[in-house]
Amino acid sequence: MLANVPRLKALMRKDGFDAVIATCAENVTYLSGFWAMSQWVRRGPQAYVLFPGEGHEPTIIVNSSLLDLVPDQNPWISDIRRYGYFQIDTDRSVQLDAADQLQHQLFSSKAYKNSVDALVGAMKERGIERGTVGIDEMGITPQCMDQLQAALPDIKFVRCFSLFERVRAIKTPREIEILRHAARVTEGAIDAALSIAKEGVTEREMLRRFNAHLVENDAAPVVGCIGFGNRSAMINVQPSDRKLKNGDLIRFDVGGRYRHYRSDMSRGAALGDPGEKIRKYYAAVEKGVLRGYDIIKPGLRVADLFKEIVATVQREGIPHFARSHVGHGIGVDGYDPPNIAASSVDVLEEDMVICVETPYYELGFAGLQVEDMVRVTKDGAESLMSLPTGLRIL
User: Fold this and answer.
1) Left if phi > 0, otherwise alpha if psi is -120 to 50, otherwise beta: which for 351?
2) According to the UniProt entry, where is the signal peptide (predicted)?
3) Residue of 277, 37, 18, 40 lying closest to 154 (CA atoms)
4) Listed residue (185, 180, 205) closest to 195, CA to CA
């Protein structure tokens, strides 16, 4: 189990919830360990996890067409309700292996008409027909929400996506292990991309090499911003046929997904000498991130972390440096809490995993960015990174 269930239960008690329902792709996967594929590839498909209070078993609600995913994923929740029609036949002349036996068992279970019918059935069996239920509002369609409220009129449904965010903010040891591996694979992809750096190589060719390394190491590409020269100042630069020239800066703002968990990091390199201004400005944004390591610890106000990082970059060489945020949490979603901004009311807690970043974009010049994945430890910070933060000269 990856989910921080003790934290979930504590927050449910605090918020007065008799049950909570996960509905969006990230929360369904996080809470159950089940990856409902259709949720991740298009909008609209419904999958839920019902998590009742003490004394009741949780339930996964999923479309019949996804039942074949259950044996390989082995979710920790054993009660799986299916809805919708899907035809699959069984060769009764052979002995089914364990995976096929489980599929046969699941396909032999009751098929509810739709996702809401399955959810309502599970709730009624557990006696959840009144009280207060938190529902993650980000994945359920308005039509399904209307049906759910009509079927259970005595329940007060309260939006609780923010509760799931608060739960996910504190990582379990297994989550931290996966995030560390995701970081290592992504760093390897940056190295792989830079291994082909020479005059004439295009941004697009570098991205292909980056993505290939991710895939070769069982990770999936998610973000691949790689820009050369003045194109590096494009905030969300998408690789083009721009060819690398001597003196060009190369900016990476990249990430992947490994076992459903995200990586997100930034590094800079240059083919030959990029010039004094780039060296000076890059050193400033690097020192901003390094200053974060000096002060990160449980209890630190996130707003204070923001202010100190910005002030460091300003002091170290970019006096006009300004940002809306200098990082964010990361986990099964690329932007878990906290958002490292001046307006944040959060404080750092042990076993948060955050991305600390100091991007600087100047059109006509360059984009400079350092971003590290960092775990908040009992008394400080632990980098999940192995690549040096300094500007790499090729």
Assistant:
1) left
2) none
3) 18
4) 205
Per-residue pLDDT reduced to its tens digit, 261-300: 999 999 999 999 999 999 999 999 999 999 999 999 999 9
- Residue identified by tokens 């292996």 is 97
Residue ranges of domains in the chain: 5-168, 173-393
- Of 188, 322, 175, 334, nearest to 267 (Cα)? 188
> What is the CATH code for 5-168?
3.40.350.10
CATH architecture of the domain covering 173-393: Alpha-Beta Complex (3.90)
Q: What is the rounded distance in angstroms from the CA atom of residue 94 to the CA atom of residue 77? A: 29
Check pLDDT > 90 for residue 225: yes
Looking at residue 78, its amino acid is S
Q: How far is CA 39 from CA 78, 94, 169, 196, in A?
A: 20, 34, 22, 36
Alpha-helix residue ranges (DSSP H) falling in 156-301:
161-168, 173-194, 203-216, 276-295
Angle in degrees, CA 182, 29, 263, rounded to 5? 20
Query: CB 204: neighbour CB atoms within 10 A?
Result: 14
Cα atoms in the Cβ-side hemisphere of radius 13 Å centred on 195: 11
Q: For the whole prediction, is pTM greater than 0.85?
A: yes
Give the start-end residues of each E strand in 233-365. 249-258, 261-262, 265-270, 327-329, 336-339, 353-357, 360-362
Written as six digits, the tokens of 309 are: 């990082």
Residue 61, CA distances (Å) to 43, 68, 113, 119, 127 in order: 17, 14, 12, 7, 17
235-265 per-position pLDDT tens digit: 999 999 999 999 999 999 999 999 999 999 9
Residue 111 vs residues 27, 50, 81, 215: alpha-carbon distances, Å: 24, 17, 8, 36
| Cα 266 off chain centre by | 16
C-alpha Rg value of the chain to the nearest Å: 24
